[in-house]
Every structure is written in C-alpha cells, then in structure tokens.
Specification:
Chain lengths: ~300, ~300
DNA sequence: GTGAAAGCGCTAACAT
DNA sequence: ATGTTAGCGCTTTCAC
C-alpha cells in the first residue's frame, strides 16, 4: 500500500473519528492489552504506593491496568481473570494458602506476585518481593545495639509472606543475639493503621515495652498514633521501627525510622517481568528479590532505664 | 450429537471451568461492564482517597474499574475511552479548558466528572463536586474571627475548578469582611505536596504571614512541612487550614484543621449517577453538590502580635 | 498490491 | 422448549 494512501486513510479516519473497537480486536487477536491487578484497600496507603509505579510502568508498556479489589474479607471477583479480559495478572494480596495462583497457572495465564509470595513447593514462580528476612534482622541488630531488651513486634497475618517472614527474621536475628522474643510481645493483626494502633495498645497494657518493630509502616503509624494518644514520647519512651518506607513515613511530622524498600523499583520490575511473560510464554518464571536498607529517621533511640 | 458425547463435553467443560469470554460477549452485547477512570497521580494521597469509594461502589454495581493515568503533564491516553472499552467514564482531573468532556459527549458516552467541573455554557453536565465556595468562605470567616489579617493562600492551577473556586470563594468572603487578599499573598501551584511546600516558602519569604489557607490538604501538608523545617510553630506562629479532609489529615501527627468533604459519599454518589446513566441514556445529567463543613483540629489558632 | 472471506466467541432472533 | 443462525468488528488468510 502506498505511503500517500496510508496517510489519506489515516486522515479520513481521524476526521470521521473512527477508532478501532477493542472488543473486536480482542476477539480476533486474543490479546486485550489489559492487565488485571488484584490489589488491597486503596485507603491503606501501602497499596497506592505500590500501585503507582506499576500503573506508570504498565502505561509505558502499553497496557491498561484493571483493578480487582480485594478487601481481605471476602474473595475478590475472579471471573475477569479467567474470561480472557487480561493478557496477564498482577497479584499483590496473595495469601500463603490461596488457590488463586494455582488456578491462574493451570489456565496458562501469565502472572506475577508482588510483595507477596506463595510458597508451597520448590517450583519457581514469578514474584517480586523485598528481602524480608534481611530487613527484619537489620532492625533486630539495630535495636539490640541500642541496648533494647524489652522488645515487641506487631506483625501481619500468618497467611501473608510479609507478616510471617518479617516476624521469623526478627525473632531469629534476636535469638542470634541471645534475646528471646516473648510470645506475649508479639501481636498478629491485619495490615491496617487501626489494627496497628489497637495491637500497640494491647502490647503496652500487657508488659513493659521499650521498642516496637512493626511489620510495615502502616502498622507503625498506627503504633505512633497510640503512643501519641497515651502521651508516650517517641523515641524517648518507646522506639518504633517500620518496614517499606512508604512516602508518608518521610513526612517530618511522622519521621519514621524504617526498613526502606524501593517500592518504585519493585513495582516496575514486577511489571517488566510480567510484560516479558505476557509477550513470550516461554520466559522462565523469576523470583525477583529487592534489596532493603535501614532508613534511620527520628523514631528510634537508645534504651533507657535498665 | 450422541448423548454420551454431550455428557462428556459438558463434564469436561465443567471440570475445566468454562468461563464465557468477555470479548465475545462485549462484541455481541455492546456492553463491557467496565468503567474508565481518568485519575491523577496515585502518589498524591488525594486520588487514592477519592478512588477508594469509587472502586468499592463500582464493584457493588458490577463494574470493573480501568485506570487511565493522567499525570497532569502530557495528555492521557484517551483511545480506550473511544474504542468501546467502557460503558461509561469517570473524570477526576478535568481542566476548565479541556476538550475531552465535549468529545466524550459528542460520541454519546456517559460520563461524570468528580471533584472537577467543566464550565463553558449553561448546559447541565454530570458532575459531583464539593461546595467549594462555601468551604472557602467558612475558612475566611474562621480566620477573620480569630483576628487574622496577615492572610495568604496557596491554591491550585487556574484551569482547575477546585483551585479557582476555592480562591475566589476565599477572596470574596474576605472582602465581605473588609479584608483584601493581596496578590502577593496568593500562590498558584499544582496540587502536590512538594509544590505546597515550595509555595509556602515563597510566601513566607515575601511578606509576614500569620495564616495560610491551602486549597487542599495535600498542599496544606506541604505547607506544614516547610513550617516545621523552618522551626515555625503551628498554630503558634502560623495557622494552616486545608480542604478535603483526606484520611492523612486526621493523623495525630498532622492534626490538620480543614474543610471536610465527605469523599466517600462524593465518590459513591458519582458512581451511582454514572451507573444510572450507563443503564439508561435518557437519565438527565445532574450536578451533585456535596455539602462541606469545618473540621477544626490543631493547626489553627488566634492571631498574635498585632 | 488489492479485495474478499473466514473466523474469533458470544448473544439474540428466529425457526422448528 | 429446543436448536439453528446471523451478526457484533476486527485481523488474517487466501485468491486474484
């Protein structure tokens, strides 16, 4: 076809406002240029922080993000995952016992888990996760080095890899330093600010606590909330350390010491790997581990009163 | 077809989990059960706050939300709006001069603007907006009643109805109380935390300021950031009032006095109206105005040193 | 190079 | 009731 004709046709199409219809195209090509994202509560600041880079990178790759809302209580609506609506799926809320990844796998739909893992057998799966164990051990060493002994942890649900790995990593690292994490010094709650606040209140009521490691920043901000309400000084009376380094953590009014995860990079790498898999099903599933580092701000301090 | 084969086929289909394919269905019914949402930066906490209730309500109405990312710099990718991908569209970033609503209208695609308006002629359009003028006047009266005279404002871009209406409402209400808002006491910047912080710094450098009204909470939190960095006490040295009452505003570490908008209700009402329009094109476009009220917290105080 | 036609998977209208 | 078929709008193949 001649170049001039091509241009004339394009021009005419533009004038008439013709836009090729996606449903027809999808039916014919079996590709939708859409990616489903199973994502948690947007009111939980962690999810926007993770979603933002994924949305940007998807846009750069020419995909449209479709949200599948998972409130953590009832099962999300999974039909669109299986009805051919998406070229691939991003999973950010996967629980350890979930059957969803297996079902998606069985149907040959490319997927990548982000921030969460699904560990059942030794088989490689596509995931992009922070180095939870290392991050937790960094916090343990930090607190021990500061002289803390009355240490507690607020962690997430046992069915979340983040909640479990960060707890295990913390406990193990403390043990290596000869400190036992007392069962009563551990609270397991959903990853929400309100739950973090309530868990901290229970911890404080139960036994003397001088340092609290929270499995993520959202829980940590909840903890700060409770401490502020009780008139306890941070870090004077109690040290608090979080995990993730969500944008809120760096506000001067919060100034949270935390384990920094480059969520931007995590999200983008997850999407790039997903796009690779969507384009070529032969691409081998990869476990991407994002390094972490301590981000020391204003909520940790030396132990006193020993 | 033999009875045995029929049974075998049905059985196999059930076991394999047959799911009707959406692209075929869409092509045939001309309905996608998907709604496009043109939304701003997810890293700007206002958007998750607005998106959250919309996503929930869409889910309740059986629609899937598809994000169209508008970074405010380059035009968002609008093809999917016109290629039949969506039954309707939610617009949350519309600028006053934008041609997008008109184009969408021309093609007969149902849409609702949320938090933003597009005012060109007298014709009714579907919008769901807070009562900007009233909110701004409430703040003006509050500050004047507290004795403030050295008043400034950080507002949003002139092309945003929110930025413009809140500025106009504030200026008019001040004028009614016999106070002029000096042009040098007004900063117009994009609705971001960093811009709010920078604008506040410029304001402070230019003239003595004792009270700052920010056109939204994101700007206000930026302002607090600058004030904290400069060692200025809030509200001792400077009062700050925001607009929207996003969840962050109520954190004890921020405790922002603001004009509360029920974003949850705003988002849900917008979606309900949109769903009505998507189901029946005859439904008349409605301008939904959400009432506002002062939410007095800890960042406003009486004027001193006059 | 150009044009016609088959077929993607579904729904709805129409026979039987 | 049940089964058949046309057609949604696109891409791709195949004739010409």
């Amino acid at each position: 076809m001649s170049e001039a004709t091509r241009r004339r046709v394009k021009e005419a199409a533009r004038e008439l406002g013709y836009v090729p219809q996606q449903s027809g195209r999808s039916l014919s090509t079996r590709r939708s240029r859409r990616i489903g994202i199973v994502v948690g509560e947007l009111s939980n600041p962690f999810y926007p922080a993770l979603l933002d880079p994924m949305v940007r990178e998807l846009e750069a790759q020419g995909y449209l993000p479709v949200l599948i809302h998972d409130d953590g209580l009832e099962e999300p609506t999974t039909e669109p995952i299986f009805d051919g609506s998406f070229d691939a799926v991003l999973l950010t809320t996967t629980l350890l016992g979930s059957s969803l990844p297996g079902e998606i796998e069985r149907r040959g739909i490319p997927y990548v888990m982000v921030n969460r893992e699904f560990v059942v057998d030794r088989r490689a799966r596509s995931t992009a996760v922070p180095d939870n164990a290392t991050g937790a051990s960094l916090v343990a060493d930090l607190l021990v080095d500061l002289g803390h002994r009355a240490v507690a942890m607020v962690t997430g649900p046992a069915e979340t890899s983040t909640g479990t790995e960060r707890l295990d990593g913390f406990r193990d690292a403390l043990a290596r330093r000869g400190i036992a994490l007392h069962p009563e010094a551990v609270e397991r709650v959903p990853f929400s600010m309100a739950d973090g606040a309530a868990a901290t209140a229970r911890l404080l009521d139960r036994r003397p606590v001088k340092a609290i490691f929270c499995a993520n920043d959202v829980l940590a901000i909840g903890a700060l909330e409770t401490l502020a309400r009780r008139g306890l000084a941070v870090p004077g009376d109690v040290s608090v350390v979080g995990f993730d380094d969500i944008p809120m953590a760096s506000l001067s009014a919060i100034d949270l010491s935390t384990v920094a995860v480059d969520l931007d990079r995590l999200g983008r790498r997850a999407v790039r790997h997903l796009a690779d898999r969507a384009r070529d099903p032969e691409v081998v599933p990869t476990r991407v581990v994002e390094p972490v580092e301590l981000r020391l701000r204003g909520t940790h301090g030396p132990a006193r009163d020993y």
